[in-house]
Amino acid sequence: MDIQEELRASVEHLRERGIGEVDVAIVLGTGLGGLVNEIEELLGISYSQIPNLPVATVEFHFGKLIYGKLGGKRVLAWQGRFHYYEGHTMEQVVKPVRISKMLGARALIISNAAGSLNPDIRKGALMCIEDHISLFPDSPLRGNNLDAFGNRFPDMREPYDVELSHSLFQVARELDIPLFKGVYVGVPGPQLETRAEYRYLRTIGADAVGMSTVPEVIAAAHLKIPCAAVSVITDECNPEHLTPFKINEVLTIAKKSEPLLTRLFAHFVDRLTFDGR
User: Fold this and answer.
1) Terminal-residue alpha carbon distance, the chain
2) For residue 31, is it left (φ>0), alpha (ψ between -120 and 50) or beta?
3) CA 209: distance to chain centroid?
4) Angle at 156 between CA 153 and CA 158, to 5 degrees
5) What is the domain count for the chain?
6) Which of 32, 50, 78, 159 has the most CB atoms in a 10 Å sphere around its CB?
7) Residue 107 lies in a domain
8) Would you report the helix, strand and coil content of the chain in percent, each value rounded to 5?
9) Residue-range definition of the domain harbouring residue 256
10) Which run of H or E residues covers position 172?
């Protein structure tokens, strides 16, 4: 079974389970699943019940797909993602994005937990990603092109939709939520960076670093799904003042910032319009 057959089988199963058309797909990152509490849930499905979907091995990712309504939109929320460092192929990592598109998604919203490389962006802050740098050794588009999904050489001038990002900032101002903007660098992980690597990442123009998002955004660009992404800054990566990394501290910071992200995303989805709706 090739990748397109696998995806079609996944979509067919989800249709049979009751998932209808989708307006917005949302990928929720580490410790940031609280938005699902705002969704009028119509259906919840464990990833393990979806054919051809890989198994999520990160213990603090729920691994559940939520279909429902938020702000008058039909949303598909992926509560937990697949990471390259778990041993998944890039094709597996981006399956949620492709499945969402096949179910009709017309916009993609992504969140992640990231480390700040910019001294002006501190722990607990939200950062709208305006561009990214990929340091992954692979691409989800490597191999034979899936012509049904997009062109062989997708344009990456604006992988993060300018209008969606502008709308995010408008909503943030109205809600009095501080929102930074910056460049996210995606690294394969799972190890953290050395002091020299943090200096390098800052030198090449990155404001935040993380182990996700970039593959999903590349897949979205290939599929021509408008995309917006927000990083929750959960640690500060100052090479001169590094402290031992503790995942529990990251989760604690994410939990504290989660209400702000939830408010931002909920109002943002409410603001979205499709075909005059």
Assistant:
1) 38
2) left
3) 14
4) 150
5) 1
6) 78
7) yes
8) 35, 25, 40
9) 3-271
10) helix 162-174
192 DSSP assignment: P
Pairing of strands 64-70, 40-46: antiparallel
Q: Is the pTM of this model over 0.85?
A: yes
142-199 pLDDT tens trace: 999 999 999 999 999 999 999 999 999 999 999 999 999 999 999 999 999 999 999 9
Tell me, what CATH number does 176's domain have? 3.40.50.1580
Q: Which of 93-107, 198-212, 250-264 has the lowest mean pLDDT?
A: 250-264
Report whether pLDDT(222) > 70.
yes
Helix (H) or strand (E) holding 76: strand 73-79
pLDDT band per the 50, 70, 90 thresholds, residue 277: very low
Q: What is the mean pLDDT of the chain?
A: 94
Q: Which two tokens stand for residue 185?
A: 């660098």
Q: Using CB atoms within 10 A of its CB, is residue 223 exposed (0-12), middle (13-18) or buried (19+)?
A: buried
Residue 220 lies in a domain: yes
Q: Are strands 107-116 and 24-28 parallel, antiparallel or unpaired?
A: parallel
Dump pLDDT digits (tens) for 243-276: 888 888 888 998 899 999 999 999 999 999 876 4
Exposed / middle / buried, residue 155 (Cβ in 10 Å: 0-12, 13-18, 19+): exposed
- Which residue type occupies 123? K
Report yes or no: 168 and 230 within 8 Å, Cβ to Cβ.
yes
Which two tokens mark 81?
A: 């993602």
